[in-house]
Amino acid sequence: MAHEGSRYRNLWALTVLCLLRERPMHPYEMQRLIRRRHKDEFLDLKRGSLYHAINRLEKAGLIEVVETSREGRRPERTTYRLSERGELELLDWLRELLAKPVREPTQFFAALSFLPHLTAEDAAEQLHQRAFRLELEIASLDAVLHKMTPQIGRVVLIEVEYLRAMRQAELEWVRTLAADMRTGRFTWDREALCRLAEAPSPPGEDNKTDA
C-alpha cells in the first residue's frame, strides 16, 4: 500500500482523507472547512489542487461518490465519502508521518550551506532581518491561537502550535548565530576556503562512486 500511495500522497490528499473521515462532503464544503480552520495558511495548500487530489483518490479507490446533486441554478455538486480502504490507508499514513522523522530541505537550509559566500558582517545583518520577520510571524501565530482556540479547540490548531514552537526555536538560534558573527566568535575566510576547495583530492577519491 505504501508503494502505491507514493503516487497520490501529498498534503491535499491527506487533507481530503481526513475531512471525509469526519463525514461525507462535497469539494465546496471541504474548501469552506479548510479556510475556517486555517489549514490553507499553515499547510501550504495550493489553490486548484483540491479537485486533482480528489480525482486521484477516487481512482485509487480511497474515496467514493455518494451522490451528485444540484440546488437551483448552482452547479452540480458531487458528495464523496471515505472508503474502507481509504480509512485504513489514512490511519497507516498518519502513523508513519508522526513516527518517522524525515529530512525536509528548505531554502534557508541551502542558504546556510553556502554561507561563506557572504562576509560575516553581511550574513549577520541578513539574519537580523530574518529574526525581525520571525518575530512578526510568531506574533501573528499567537493572534491566531488566541482567537481561534476558544472557538474550534486546540486539536484543530495543533499544527499552528507546532509551527509557533519551531519558529520560536529558530528565532533563538538565529539570534545566537548573528550575535556570534557580530562579536567575531564565528567567522570565516572565504579565500582560504576557496584554496581548500582547489586542493587535490586524496588518492582514489575521484574514483569513488555513489553506493
The CATH class of the largest domain = Mainly Alpha
- Kindly state the percentage of residues in helix: 55-70%
The CATH architecture designation of the largest domain is Orthogonal Bundle
Query: Going across the major beta sheet, what is the strand order?
Result: 1-2
* Percent strand: 5-15%
Biggest β-sheet strands, sense, barrel: 2 strands, antiparallel
Produce the secondary structure layout.
Blueprint: H1 2-5, H2 11-22, H3 27-36, H4 39-42, H5 50-59, E1 63-69, E2 77-82, H6 84-99, H7 107-113, H8 120-152, H9 158-183, H10 190-198
Antiparallel strand pairs: 1-2
Helix pairs in contact: 2-6, 8-9
What would your notes on this structure say?
- With 211 residues, the protein is mainly α.
- It has two domains: 2-99, Orthogonal Bundle (Arc Repressor Mutant, subunit A), CATH 1.10.10.10; 107-198.
- The protein contains ten helices and two strands.
- It has a two-stranded antiparallel sheet.
- A hairpin with a 7-residue loop joins strand 1 and strand 2.
- The protein starts with a helix and ends in a 13-residue tail after the last helix.
